[in-house]
Write a structure and sequence with these properties.
- The chain has ten helices and ten strands.
- It has 355 residues and is of the alpha/beta class.
Amino acid sequence: MGGPGDPPEGTPEGGPVGGEDEYRSVVFDESFVRAARLQEYSAQERMSDHSPAVRRRPPLRRGLSRQALILVLLIAVAFGTAIYMGVRHPYQNATIRQPVEPLRMTVIPLAPEGRVPGHADAEYLYEHSPAAQFRVGAEGIPLPASRRTAHFSDSQVVSALTTAKDYIVRSSLDPDVLAGDQVRAVRVLLDTDQLDQFDQSFAHPAADGRHAPTGWLVRFDPAEARLADGRIRVQGSLQAAETDSSTLEVTADHTFVYALRAAGAAASEVSLFTVRRELHFRFDRDDLRMHTAQLVVSYVQAGPLSCAEDSTNRLHPLLAGRTAKAGGPAGTDPYATGSATALCGSLATSAQPRV
């Protein structure tokens, strides 16, 4: 007898044993049938509508995979963050750097109206001069209270003021600079675009308003004078302001009073020498980052000096007991505010110590 799955007549001749169908291994599960693009109409549908035997099914809608959704979300977050940071931190916007201006300088010697006062004690001279209330050294160059500007933060304003102060201290108070022994301490604080002008000023000094070493720093002729007291008296002010969205400017106005005596004469009398320096510094974002400055204006009054002496390369002070033949217009007081009046002026009697 045949098996339960065999035809009543038995297995046809030549057919597979046991009724095995050669297509039985192909399984048409529900998902396979549902995904088919062609679907056969039922007999009832074909009889009523005379439709074709099959119809085309619309493609299944497939949503984005989870990985694709995460990727799209990450891209959106990154793009939004970039936009936010650009709006929130305008200080980081890239700007085209403006050309650095060369330094414009004016050095005006002030000739005494009479004999230069002197005394054996430097402290005595200070106490009897307009510098009696001045502070000593860098203490006379305090940083002002700083505030952020429209395009610069508090820290950037402080950085500009600090760099300007460092330049003033090194170029006006450093004993090695005053003696003319070195200039590097000042040079390293300058913007790199001004270094050629700085180097040319010391290699080939000229009274052309561009290349006078005494426009960059204070230095005396070591063969004529030396410091008698290292406690140099200083008074002045610093002010910072924004000139445009990419530039900060610091204006410095300080008066320095030095006690000098003749070189090589330990027992000689001491006299006072006064230098007033008005300096204008400019800072772009590169300068703030590199701790450098652009010195664009240097306006110097110094005395007692002789107008006959060249003050371009070094200052040649008139020391105690000396007089100057050459003078200038009405007395100029370096302790008072105001502009210089000529290429050589007269040092007001009120600017000298009373001895």
